[in-house]
Structures are given as C-alpha cells and as structure tokens.
Specification:
Blueprint lengths: L1 H5 L4 H34 L9 H8 L2 H20 L3 H16 L6 H24 L3 H8 L6 H13 L3 H8 L5 H30 L14 H11 L3 H13 L4 H10 L1
Helix pairs in contact: 4-5, 4-6, 5-6, 6-7, 6-8, 7-8, 8-9, 8-10
Length: 264
C-alpha cells in the first residue's frame, strides 16, 4: 500500500511529452536542413528558384512616368559603365531598362514614344557592349530588335562580319554610307576565301599526295621485307654504344691498343 502511494503517476506523461518534444525537434531540424539545401541550390543556379516578384509588381503598380524616368536613368548609367570599361555592369543596367519597358503600360502617347526611344537606346547600347565583349551572337539579337535604324544595321553588319555571315552583313549594310565597315567586310571575306582554299587544298592534296618513301630501300621491295632490311641497314644504337665504350678504354699506345682491338 505504501509502495502504491509513493508511485509517481506523472512520470509516464513526462516521458511522453519528452518523446513528442524530441520528435518535434527532429522535424524542425529536417525542415531547417531542407531550407538550407533549397537556398544553396537556388544560389548555385543563379537564383533561378527565387520566385519573389516584388520588384516586378512595384514596376507594374507605379505610374508610367516614374517608370520612364527610372529606365532613362538606367540607360545613362549603362552608357557610363560602358565608357569606364565595366561591361558586365553596363549590361545589367541596360537589361534593367528593358525590363522596365516591359512593365510600363502608359495611356499617354508622348510617354509611349519616349519609352520606345529609351528601349531603342538600351538595345543599341547592349549591342555595343556585347560586341566589345566578343559576344557577336548576343549583339546580333539586340540589333535585330531595332527596326529602321542605320546604327542598328551597322552594328548588325559588324556582328555578322564577326560571325562570317557575309551575305547577311551586306544585306544589313544596304544603302548605308559606311565605307570603313564595307572595307573591313571585304578584307575579312578575302581572308576567309584564302583560308578556305588553303585548307581544302591541304585536305584534297593530302588524300592524293603520293606517300613519301620511308627508309633507304627502293619501293620495289615488298613491305613485309622492307622493315627488316631497313632495321638492318640503319646503324644500331647498341653498336654505337659499344664503340664509344671501346674508345674510352684505349690508352694511346699503338702496341697495347692494337692487341686490345685484336682481342675485341
């Protein structure tokens, strides 16, 4: 009876609560681990899993006039970065301006016209940056988004020239007064044709060129015998080594050296 009175009835409940707390802690640890892994994966792929669209929603909500001012400022900063040689930062500013254009829906025709001018400047600026960074394909994509603009066609011709797209480069130039670009295009095309002729001549000549005769024996000897005869005709390395070792043993006395040579 005394043992029954001393028994602690709360112990099973405390044990159960401790078990539940342990499970909750383990679940929290697993959730934290999954969050860290997701963050690491998002950082590894450049934030491709980041679905935060706060900036886009802010652009969509703000007035078109404010969006225009921000985009024009981004274009100016991109031009300044390009002049300073900071090409990556210049591309980032130009892309920011283009994103702002996509989220601007003005009702005023004047603001729309200014937005179109800003987009043209951003595309031309990004094309110049891409050409400077030796990325002609990206520059070509930017140029072809601008229509009826001589500078865009000139940049497009330059990008096509860098890609050896000579017909497209001539089409892009059209009636534009660009003697320097036309001269560079003609020079590059001449070099391309010359290199192509040299390469094709080497390929075709290599196929039809008579194989050089190996060894010192005539070609009339069968190939199965020529290798063995060539090896026999060539001075052997072992013989040269033996002769050099023999010379080192000579003393300069004719009688002694003659007897040693006769014995050898």
């Amino acid at each position: 009876m005394a043992a029954a009175e001393e028994y602690d009835w709360t112990r099973p409940y405390r044990t159960w609560e401790a078990t539940l707390k342990k499970q909750d802690d383990e679940e929290d640890a697993d959730a934290a681990l999954k969050r860290r892994e997701a963050a690491a994966a998002a950082a590894a792929c450049g934030g491709c899993r980041n679905l935060d669209r706060t900036e886009e929603r802010a652009l969509f909500a703000q007035p078109a006039a404010e969006t225009l001012k921000g985009a024009q400022l981004a274009v100016l900063r991109g031009e300044r970065m390009f002049q300073e040689g900071r090409l990556e930062r210049a591309i980032q500013w130009y892309e920011k301006a283009l994103v702002a254009y996509d989220y601007a829906f003005p009702e005023d025709d004047n603001i729309q016209a200014l937005l179109d001018v800003m987009r043209r400047d951003a595309l031309l600026g990004s094309a110049r940056v891409y050409l400077e960074a030796k990325l002609p394909r990206a520059a070509l994509r930017s140029c072809r988004e601008v229509s009826e603009n001589d500078e865009a066609r000139l940049l497009e011709a330059r990008a096509c020239r860098e890609l050896d797209l000579f017909d497209e480069a001539r089409t892009a130039l059209g009636e534009i007064d660009a003697p320097r670009e036309r001269a560079l295009l003609e020079a590059r095309e001449r070099c391309y044709k010359t290199n192509s002729k040299v390469v094709s001549k080497r390929i075709v000549g290599g196929l039809h060129q008579k194989k050089l005769q190996k060894g010192i024996l005539p070609a009339s000897i069968p190939a199965c015998q020529r290798d063995m005869l060539d090896d026999a005709a060539r001075p052997l390395a072992t013989a040269a080594e033996a002769f050099s070792s023999l010379v080192e043993t000579l003393e300069g006395d004719d009688i002694k050296d003659r007897s040693r040579l006769m014995c050898t």
